[in-house]
Structure formats: structure tokens, C-alpha cells
Amino acid sequence: MKYTVSIEIALPRERVVQLLADPAHLPKWLRGLVLHEPLSGVHGQVDTKSRVVMQMGRQKIECTETITRREPADLREIPTGSVVHFDREIVGEGMWSAVRDRLTEAGPETTLWVSESEYRFSGVLMRLAGVLMPGAFRKQSQQHMQDFKAFAELGEDVREAKD
């Protein structure tokens, strides 16, 4: 299963990228995050492996995330017109996923974030979920982007949401 979602954020690309890359901000916008801890490497750097635990309703999902691409490596003073790439693989029970994020300047004070996701399922339950609820994966990705936008532009924290 593959899909692409995108969102425009009313902040300069360099600021958006720095907010996304800072692990201290993850709980503020990544809805359901219980834990994100590096097992090896430095958070956000290529080849870093992290243990990620998410709470989805009553179910806790644990997986391993590996950063496969981050360009440029230095997120300060990014050249005008260049594309920031941030890719990762996520492996959990019965599931493999690759996420390829691209951040470009949509204007002097606006950033376009495009995220391509690919999922492969091996377990019976995960295959069934992929067949019966493909829209749920896309909807969750879009929700994470909307939550990040609200955090970046307005300072909203998903942990304080009343939903």
C-alpha cells in the first residue's frame, strides 16, 4: 500500500525543519507517542535506530525506526531552492513501512511538506487491517501533519487537546 499526503505550513522551511528534527517537540505534535528513544546513533541522524512506542486507542504498538536519509545533514542555513529530505524505515510486528518526507519552500514564509508512505504487511491481522482499512493509515498520517502544523504555527500541544 502506498499513498502521499501533504500540507503547507506558514513558517519558513528552515524553522519547520528545525522543529521537526528536535526530539523534545515530538510529544507535542505526534499524537499517541508513548516513547521515542535512540537505541544506537544520534536522534535524527542517518543510520540511527530508535525504539518507538505508540498508543492507538487501547492498543500499544512497538516498532523500530531507522533513519535512512537526511539531507542536508546540517539543518541550519539550508540553501534557497533546495529540498530537505528526511526518510525512515519503520519495522513492527507484521509490518514494514518506509516514509519519505520532502520539505520545500512554497514561498518566503511558507513550507510545503510532502510525505510519501509505503506499507508492507506480513502478519494475518496486519494484512487484514491493510485491506479493510487502507484509509485509516492515510488519515493518521494527515492527522500527524495537521497536529504538527498547529504546534508549529500556534503552539498547540496534542497532549492538551480535548478530543
TrEMBL record:
Output the InterPro entries linked to this UniProt entry. Answer: Polyketide_cyclase/dehydratase, START-like_dom_sf
- The secretion signal range is none
Q: Which domain of life is it from?
A: Bacteria
State the name under which the record lists this protein.
SRPBCC family protein
Q: Which source organism does the UniProt entry give?
A: Lentzea tibetensis
The opening ranks of the lineage are: Bacteria, Bacillati, Actinomycetota, Actinomycetes, Pseudonocardiales
